[in-house]
Design goal:
Shape: globular
Helix content: under 10%
Number of helices: 0
Order of helices and strands: EEEEEEEEEEEEE
Strand content: 35-45%
Radius of gyration: 15 Å
Protein name: NHL repeat-containing protein
Largest sheet: 4 strands, antiparallel
Distance between the termini: 33 Å
Organism: Didymodactylos carnosus
Number of strands: 13
GO cellular component, one term: extracellular region
Keywords: Glycoprotein, Repeat, Signal
InterPro entries: 6-blade_b-propeller_TolB-like (IPR011042), NHL_repeat (IPR001258)
Length: about 160
């Protein structure tokens, strides 16, 4: 992952850059990037089924979600796509193959399902390959429900 400032043509590597792999200084098929206020870079590492955080200037990342092998347990992800991080450091992940949105509070190794996780489907409580997510200023969660060709809006209580 490279950062380019306006007017730059080279950019600098801010995450990965050491070939494809599963070491903490590597990524394997990164799909999405989120940058927080401290300039830390969060990357959904699709083939490694994890989300990595790269603090500004770091040579290796920190696993903040997943990295327990592909699966549907609360410590696992399966092909993560979209990532959003709130001001408390809580990581929200579109867990595409598990048809769910996961929440990982800062410092925990086990996440929780906040949307979906009820098998692939088209009902209002189901998702089909979610790929993106975003919050509005009122705390509503918007999910790109790719397989159902829709965007769903959810009211999420961040304390639950």
């Amino acid at each position: 992952v490279r950062r380019y400032r306006r007017g730059e043509s080279q950019g600098i590597v801010v995450a990965g850059g050491n070939g494809s792999g599963n070491r903490l200084d590597q990524l394997s098929c990164p799909h999405y990037v989120f940058v927080d206020r401290d300039h830390s870079v969060y990357v959904s590492d699709w083939e490694n089924d994890r989300v990595m955080k790269w603090v500004e200037g770091a040579k290796q990342g920190i696993v903040v979600a997943g990295d327990q092998g592909q699966g549907n347990g609360l410590t696992q992800l399966s092909n993560p796509w979209g990532v959003v991080v709130d001001q408390l450091g809580t990581v929200y992940v579109a867990d595409a193959r598990n048809d769910r949105i996961m929440r990982w509070p800062k410092g925990v190794t086990k996440g929780s399902v906040i949307v979906g996780g009820n098998a692939e489907g088209g009902q209002s409580n189901q998702l089909n390959g979610p790929t993106g997510l975003s919050f509005d200023r009122h705390g509503n969660l918007y999910v790109v429900d790719n397989g159902n060709r829709r965007v769903q809006k959810f009211n999420i209580d961040s304390n639950s």
